[in-house]
Specification:
The protein is built from eight helices and no strands. By secondary structure, it is mainly α. It has one domain. Helix 3 packs antiparallel against helix 4.
């Protein structure tokens, strides 16, 4: 246990300024999403653009693709969250829970992305990226793809997928040498649990 804590401490001391900025922006972004504040997207864009570079550098190609996807979805989500009804005050998009059909769509969405990323990373591992961990990277990536898609639509279940992403990402980034990022995902895990509880209370009745 002491050796793990020592490794985390040493990793934090060696954290570069780009990773530090990305971590801070990521935590702030999730804080805003829990509050249903549109600032989740501009702060998130800082986080994702920096992590595209950091993930590629660390041979986390699945995570690099996730952050590129995050960047595109942040722009899309920003648009959806800022749309107003005719009174120009009430948001068009409200927090809702998923019905059975939407759950099936989510699971299929996750399954397709997991297979595509896993196969791609398995090839990359043999060809030019021996440090890649296909099954773990694919799981963290596919859950994150699903979570971001649902976050843009203000679905309560987005937080469930974020919780899974964070659980998978904590050890994944640690073994890759990004200790500070691992600590970030631990913080994000706690925020995701709080976000799920908060959004569940605000949720409208699911559309049947």
């Amino acid at each position: 246990m002491f050796s793990v804590l020592q490794s985390i401490y040493n990793g934090i001391l060696q954290t570069g300024w780009l990773e530090a900025i990305a971590v801070i922006a990521g935590v702030v972004s999730v804080w805003y999403s829990r509050k249903e504040n549109v600032l989740v997207f501009p702060t998130g864009l800082i986080n994702t653009t920096l992590y595209i570079y950091l993930s590629y550098k660390g041979n986390l190609f699945g995570e690099a693709s996730v952050n590129l996807y995050y960047t595109l979805m942040s722009v899309y989500g920003w648009y959806l969250w800022t749309r107003k009804k005719e009174d120009h005050q009430t948001p068009v998009l409200q927090i809702t829970s998923s019905n059975q059909k939407e759950w099936i769509q989510q699971l299929l969405f996750f399954g397709v992305f997991y297979l595509v990323i896993f196969i791609s990373l398995s090839f990359a591992k043999k060809a030019f990226a021996p440090e890649a961990i296909p099954w773990a990277d694919a799981f963290a990536s596919a859950t994150a793809y699903t979570g971001m898609w649902l976050m843009a639509k203000k679905k309560v279940e987005s937080w469930i997928w974020w919780i899974l992403t964070n659980i998978a990402s904590i050890p994944l980034y640690f073994v890759k040498g990004y200790a500070f990022t691992s600590v970030q995902f631990l913080i994000l895990l706690l925020l995701a649990i709080a976000g799920f509880q908060s959004w569940r209370k605000k949720a409208k009745t699911p559309t049947l």
